[in-house]
What does this fold into?
Amino acid sequence: MRPEASAPFLPPLATKVPRRRAIIGLTPLIDVVFILLIFFMLASSFLDWRAIELNVPAQTATGSSAEGALLVEVRSDGVRLSGEPVSLDELATRVAARLETTPDQRVLVKPAAGVALQQAVTVLDRLAVSGVSDLSLIGDGAE
It folds into this structure.
């Protein structure tokens, strides 16, 4: 047997044609990102629609605006109801119990100097959820 006959058939070497690399166009990608950006800007809401109604206490010569009202002090060391330290849950429970007897009970909230705004808003929100309809925010000068 001849050695040429037992060798497998090999095709002749073809000349390699250089392949062009596929170029990815950035224009469609930018269009998609832009459309997604517009969609999420229009679909999302950045405003919180919850609102807390506050009343401005009336300034009278006799000072009767605070008479009979519950005074809630928001301090850096905690919350006080009529001078007594209470937790937020206890505050909500006591105010709700008071509202059962007098539904038009006035509640005055007095944040101390240096108290974080979020802490005062948390107290106001808890009182509003408890059912307080006459809620006033007072400063240091008003009592």
Notes: The mean pLDDT is 78.
